[in-house]
């Protein structure tokens, strides 16, 4: 069954923190998932992913329960964004360089997928290269593997971890204990790679 997403971007979360009132815009994405999650991108974009039938009351409860995590993570991302090195590239230069990285990614990712697929099993239909702001990779129910071209800016070992992660989703479409066991069998040091992405992922920009 095709995944139907419903997006609502006109929301404001108000949080009083350390004697200051913050008004934070956030987006709600409803899909056929079973659980709720909150993510904050390196660009400080707040996204709630919830089941299709999640009620406004349930969403409100989630925001209240996670408000301290949200504001501290938001301020952390904001600080990292402000401290991000300023590039000397002009917009045309940056666009041209991005195209080169994307072209390189389209050639490189299939090779790494082919290498690790022999160890992970499962069946995939195609590989796509994307410019996602909050995800490094994804695996659809139809077997489409998608990867963020910005991983080409990361150490090769980090890129390989994401490839293994998504390949393991071909047989485990969740993050269960069995899934992580599959990842660890192929990529034993996956925890280090996950930590690196959390700490340095926002640096993968031109």
Distance between the termini: 38 Å
* Rounded mean pLDDT score: 88
Low-pLDDT stretches are: none
Task: Assess the beta-strand content as a share of residues.
Answer: 15-25%
The structural class is alpha/beta
The radius of gyration computed from the alpha-carbon positions, rounded to a whole number of angstroms, is: 18 Å
Spatially, the strands of the biggest sheet line up as 1-2-4-3
Count the DSSP helices.
6
Helix content: 40-55%
State the major sheet: 4 strands, mixed
Order of helices and strands: EEEEHHHEEEHHH
Structure summary, number of beta strands: 7
Cα shape: globular
Q: What is this structure, in a nutshell?
A:
By secondary structure, the chain is α/β, with parallel strands linked by helices. It has helices spanning 56-65, 67-82, 91-120, 156-168, 177-186, 190-200; strands at residues 6-17, 20-31, 37-40, 46-51, 126-130, 137-139, 144-148.
What can you see in these coordinates?
By secondary structure, this protein is of the alpha/beta class. 44% of the residues lie in helices and 23% in strands. It contains 6 helices and 7 strands. The chain has helices spanning 56-65, 67-82, 91-120, 156-168, 177-186, 190-200, and strands at 6-17, 20-31, 37-40, 46-51, 126-130, 137-139, 144-148. The strands form 2 sheets. A 4-stranded mixed sheet has the order 1-2-4-3, with helices on one face. A 3-stranded mixed sheet has the order 5-7-6, with helices on one face. α3 crosses α4 and α4 (156-168) crosses α5. The radius of gyration is 18 Å and the shape is globular. The model has no long low-confidence stretch (mean pLDDT 88).
């Amino acid at each position: 069954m095709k995944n139907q997403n419903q997006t609502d971007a006109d929301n404001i979360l108000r949080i009083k923190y350390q004697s200051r009132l913050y008004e934070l815009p956030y987006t709600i994405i409803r899909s056929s998932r079973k659980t709720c999650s909150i993510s904050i991108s390196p660009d400080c974009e707040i996204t709630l992913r919830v089941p299709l039938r999640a009620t406004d009351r349930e969403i409100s409860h989630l925001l209240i329960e996670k408000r301290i995590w949200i504001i501290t993570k938001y301020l952390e991302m904001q600080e990292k964004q402000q401290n991000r090195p300023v590039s000397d590239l002009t917009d045309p230069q940056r666009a041209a360089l991005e195209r080169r990285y994307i072209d390189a990614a389209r050639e490189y990712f299939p090779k790494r997928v082919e290498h690790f697929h022999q160890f992970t099993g499962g069946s995939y239909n195609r590989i796509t290269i994307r410019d996602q702001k909050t995800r490094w990779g994804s695996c659809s129910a139809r077997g489409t593997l998608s990867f963020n071209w910005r991983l080409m800016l990361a150490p090769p070992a980090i890129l390989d971890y994401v490839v293994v992660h998504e390949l393991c989703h071909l047989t485990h479409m969740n993050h269960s204990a069995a899934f992580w066991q599959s990842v660890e069998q192929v990529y034993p040091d996956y925890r280090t790679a996950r930590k690196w992405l959390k700490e340095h992922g926002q640096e993968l920009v031109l």
